[in-house]
Structure formats: structure tokens, C-alpha cells
Amino acid sequence: MSKDKNKQGGGFGAGRRFGIGLVVALNVLFAVLIWALLNFLLTKPALRKTFDLSPGAKFSLGGETEALVAQLRKSGDLLEIDTFFESYQGAKDPGGIHARVKSLAYDLIERIRFLGGRQIKVRHNDIYRDIKSSGERVEVTGGQPDTVTLKIGKKTRLIHLIHDMADIDTPDTGGMPGQAQAQFVLRGFKGEQALASALKSMLLEEENLRAYWVKDFFAGDPSDQTAAGYAGLARALMEDGFDNHRISLVTAQEIPANCRLLILLQPRLPIPEREAALIQSYVRRGGSLLMTAGMSRGGRALSQRSLLEPLGLRLGKQQLFNGLPDSTGSAPPRYGDPRCSFLMIEDGWSRVHPVTKSFRQRRMVGAFPQARGLRLAEKMPKGVRGTYLITSNPYTWGEAYVGGVRPDYRPTSEQDLGRQQIAATIVVDGETERKGRIALISAIAFANGDGLIDQHSKFALELCSWLASREARVDVPERYRRTESIKLSPQQVSRVKLLVVWVVPLSFLAFAFFLVYWRRRA
Amino acid sequence: MTAQLPTLKAPKRQLWIITRREFFALLVSPISWVILFLFFLFRGFEVYQLASYFKEVGGDSESFAMGYLASASTQFAIVLVPPILTMRAFAEEKRTGSLEHLMTAPVRDFEVVFGKWLASWLFFVLLWLPTLTLLLILQMDSFLGVSMPMGQVCAAYIGLFALGSLILAAGLFTSSLTDNQLLASLAGMIFAFALLRAPQEISQQLDVRALDVDSGFGLVLLDQFYVIKQLGQWFFRGLVDTGYLVFYISTTGLFLFLTTRVIESRKWR
């Protein structure tokens, strides 16, 4: 019977069913294979494309950063990235800035890690739970919180989450008592710039650059942890890829050829002719010198003529400070108040110099105590060009910020010292292709106690990088765009409630009832 | 006189007829509007809570948009709504016997399947459109008074609609396997829930390395299935990745193909 049915085409036999089943199974298998092939091919990084529609395309990397990662992959080196981030909440994180910067940093590192493949190893260390990583943090970062370390072989770089990656602004609320407390605002995220610059310097520089600290003439000591010492600057330089060494000019025949930066901070003795000639010769061979020469604590002002005059620089003899006027007006101005000699530079940065241009734009605040004026010679020596770096004005004094309030203080014409130059750089056409560079700051800058504060550390590193002619700085535009902040009144919240809890859902329910009614009628 | 064989009309026209029929059926079903009511009630409380939070703590429009998009009701809408929309697509037709009529009509099996899927997808989009309108209304000064990052919002909706298409196709497949609507919707919900949770669990259990350019196909595939991460870390933050879109579209296609085969198999029995 069934055979007859099969013959008539009225049904399927077991054999035919098996055949159909096999064809269907093969069909399904084929479809799954096509699906797998599509997913295999179209998820390849070369064929995959990501469209970044976020505000300011903040999750995208710049072309230069991608090129650097490609260069890393080509080199075959392994880049290890370690994060040691703190966790702050509430009042400890005003405006949620720390959390936001941390999140942006994680995203950035994740994107770089994705592109780097096996050649980038990322570890996000939980310093609260993992004792090992906590110990590691102390070892790698010196116990500094919120840091990212990059390591290729023996080369390491250290980046601070807030200082290096965030551009934070405190809007001026007028500073008058009774006004609302100034709120910190995250103006930009510079994480990509910081990471890319660090990576570039590690890829470009075969080994760390050598910085030699002059140890004669009671000059600043990189191992001195006291307030007058420069351990903070030495550490910042080390984190930025410099190896710190010490040198005695008195005993040395010449400054080593591998010296990329000579550091002479606050010499307390006049530099003799021989040693000055040694430095000048080094600069003319394309060397770089960082020198600070503020007033000594005792008020002594060394002119260092033997060293500076042949290079077209001249230091002033008078300490720069403004007097605090007596509030009654009967007594003479109180000269000698330590705050009077503490320059707070905000808009005095040179707007043309590559080191300070961005500081000026961002109105970054720098503190320079014990300053005196300096001048470039009217007629500079042949082959020497100078640029002023920092200029003070009568309103750049520390007392202006006493108590956080800016008094309406205008010095009398006798007190007004006018605009004073306190830092300059000179470029010397050398005997070699490389030009010699000098930065002279006529104030105590970068000392531990006198504020190797965050901004100063940034200023010091930018200055040293410029002096050492490092081409490792990557200028990546800040991608973080601050979106509009929401400040809601109770009335607005009530209106939102009315709309989203009542009006919208009930309109759908009403429509459902209408449909039931309509269908019944129909 | 020779018998006239039924002729197949242009596929586009047939598809449109089926889509229109199914979409209209969903539209006039009170159940659909009750789903919308429940969804928007749940979502309404969430948005109100979000606004209250922003009133107390403050924040920016980007965070608000993120909170608005990645709320619990979104997961609810992804896991529960598509299987409910598709459960009756074939199960109901099988139970009432109307599927036989449909199968004998001059229409290709794939057109039936695709038309039903398209109708449910359009309804899914319709479900989400008021949320977008609401977000635009909330921008007004009377409510929040800020403009929302629309690029981020667009990317989020692209992700939601793409994932919705996948889960709807899977729901259609489960509906084609049984004549029990409840079973079909339950299977669809289990699939959607597993899709949302399983890759996360597997990644955690196996301590899987994060995806990078050197990752093997196994890891890429696991990452493709990790839809909750794709929504949270990619689409909701404004990133549209073609790799993930390929996964959603190809998997939707695969499920529609499988559904077509299941429907065809009725003819062989």
C-alpha cells in the first residue's frame, strides 16, 4: 500500500525522507558555515570599522598614536602597562573628576591594548585587595597614588592620572567671601598625549637620556630630600626617561659627550673662569644647561658674570618683592614678609615659547620664590638668540592670594617694580649641527620645599625636554569635550515625573482600552 | 479548460502584504499596548529616579543619556518583549490550523518567515521610538534644559535595533518549533537571557583574556556573543562597530533560514 502511495507521489518513503533530511542537514550545515565564515572574515581588524559617535569622538585614537602602536608591533618589543589607581568617592572626589578621568584612562589604555595585540600587556592593579600589587606600586612608583607605568625592557615611564592626563580648571568666582566655593571642572583629558609621548620617547630613545647635576659650588643636590633639595625634580626626570648622574666640574677635564642636560641649580659660590669656560664650550658643542639662580636665603646675589655675560645674560642684584601696605597707612610697607617674595605667575608665561605657550593659554599657576630680575644683553653675542620665558607684574605676588581673597592692591609708583623678567632661554649656534640651549631662571624653582608642585613638575619636564632637544612630545588634540551639566530644580523634577510616570504610560493604557472597546464594537 | 495554477506574485509585493498583515495584527492587539504601558510605566519610574539623582548629585548630559539608555527596563525590553511579540507568529497559526492555509497560498516560505520577522521588528522599533521622542522632549527647558549627545543616542538605538532583530529572529525560530505559544515565548526568553548572561559567565569562569588584534577566532566569537558588553561599552557610549553589526545581521539571517527550513519540513511529513 505504502509502495503504491509512493509511486503516486502521495507521501514519502523512509529512503526519501532520509534523503530529504540529509539535504536539509547539509543545508543547515552550509548556512552555519557561511555564518561562521562571515563572522571570521568581517571581524578581522583590517575589515572591521568603528564609528565613534560619542561627543568629541573621545574614544578614537589619533593617527600618530596608532602609528606609534604599529611601530611598537613592528619592533617586536613588549610594552607593559600597569595602572595603580585609587578609588575616591563623594567629597574626596569633587565633581567626580577623579572617577571620570580614571574611566577615560581605562578606555584609552584598553583601546591601545586592543591595537597592540600580544605586544601590549596591561595590568590594572587593585591596590586595595591585592597586597602584591600594593607592594609593587611602592616599588615602581615610589608610593605615588594614581599612576600609570609603561615599561619596555629596562626603559620605564611614569604618568600621573590627574597631573599628566587631566586638565582641571577652577573657575574664578571672584574670590570674595560669601560667594559660592569654586568648583573644579574637568576641562580636558590629555591622556592620549601623555601616553603617546611616553611611548614615543621609549621607542625613539635607545636608552635613557643622561642628565648631569653639577655638584660643586654648593649647587642643588638631587639626593637631598629636604625642603632646599631637589629630590623631587630628580625623581620627575627619572620618570620621564632621564638617568640622573652627578659631575664635578672642578675635577672633570670636560663635560661628557653623552650629557644631554647639565643641571646647575642655585650655586652658592661664584663659578670660576675655568669651569665657566667648560660649560660655555659644552653649550657651543650643542649641549644644554638648566640653571636657576634666585636669591640665596641669606639674601646674597651672585651675578655669575663669568658664565653668563659671554652668553648675553645678566642677573639683577635686587630681590624682587612688593611691600604689603600697612592697613592704617601710617606705617611703611612691611618689607620682608616671606609671602611678598613669592611670585605667583599666571599670565606671565611667554605666549610664543614652545615650553610655556600652553601654560599661558591654560593660565597655569607657577610659584617662584626668592626671585630677582634678569636681562638679555641689548646686543647679544654673535650666534646667540634669547627669549624671555617668564615675566612678572605688580599683581603676581603671593600676598595677593592670602586667605584666598584677591585684595584691591595697587602699589604706589615707588613700590611698583613694573614688569620684571625672571626667566629666559637662549639658543647658541654651535660648532656642531645641534644647537646649544640654556634656560636660566632667576628664582628658586623646582626645590622640594619651594614648590615642586604639580605645575612646576610639568614646567620642569617640558623645559628639560626642550633643552635636551627631545622630539618625543606627541601633540594630540584633547578629545574630551565637556558636556552640558544638568542642574535640576524641584519643579523640573516634578514635571519630569508627571510626564514619564503618568502621561506617557497612561496614554498607552488608554489606547489599549480603546482597542478593546473598538474590537468589541466591530 | 485547463486548471489555472496559482502564480507567485512579485516577491516584494508578497512580502509587503504579509508584513502589513502581521504588523497590523500586532498593532490592534490590546496585549501589545498593555506591554507598551507596562514598559513605559517601569521606564517612567526609572527616568524619574534618574532625574531625582541628578537633582541631588548633579552630572552631565552624557551621563544622563547613559543612565537613560542603559536602564533595567532596557534589559526587560530585550529579554521579555521580543519573545512575546513572536510567540504567536507560527505557534498560534499551527494551533488554529491557519498555517496550512498560509503555506498553500501562492507565497514562498521565506517570504512568510521574513514578512513575520519584519513586522515584529517594526513593532519593536515602534516600541522604542517613544523613548527617543521622550528624550527629545526632556531636552526642553521645562524638563532638563540641556541638549543630549545625539551621536551617542543614535549609536545606542542602532545597537538596540540590531540586537532586537537577532532576538526576534530567534523568537520566530522557537515559535516555528512548537504549537504552544507559552513554550515558544519561554524558549525565546531563555535564549535571550542566555545570550545576555552566558558569555559574561563563560568569560569570568575561564578568565578569558580581553580581545585584541591578535585574538583567535574562538575569542572573537565569544566576544561577538557578549552582547551585554557590546551594548554597555560600545553602542551606549556612542561606538558603532561593524564587527558586531555583522554578527547581529548574520545571526538574524541564520535564524530566519533555520525557521524557513522548519516551516518547509511540514510539507515532507
Verbal overview:
The complex is a heterodimer of chains A (522) and B (269). Chain A has 522 residues and is of the alpha/beta class. Chain A has three domains: 61-198, Glutaredoxin (3-Layer(aba) Sandwich); 207-467, Rossmann fold (3-Layer(aba) Sandwich); 494-522. Chain A has helices at 2-8, 14-42, 63-75, 97-116, 131-141, 161-165, 191-204, 231-239, 273-284, 305-308, 357-362, 454-467, 490-521; strands at residues 50-52, 79-84, 120-125, 147-152, 155-160, 166-169, 185-189, 209-214, 242-247, 259-265, 288-292, 313-319, 342-345, 366-369, 372-376, 384-392, 420-428, 436-441, 485-486. Chain A has a seven-stranded mixed sheet with strand order 9-8-10-11-18-17-16, sandwiched between helices. In chain A, strands 3-2-4-5 form a four-stranded mixed sheet, with helices on both faces. In chain A, a hairpin with a 7-residue loop joins strand 17 (420-428) and strand 18 (436-441). Chain A is elongated. The two termini of chain A are 51 Å apart. Chain B is an all-alpha fold and 269 residues long. Chain B has one domain. In chain B, 79% of the residues lie in helices and 2% in strands. In chain B, helix 7 (109-138) packs antiparallel against helix 12 (242-268), helix 8 (150-177) packs across helix 9 (181-206) and helix 8 (150-177) runs parallel beside helix 12. Strand 1 of chain A pairs antiparallel with strand 2 (239-241) of chain B.
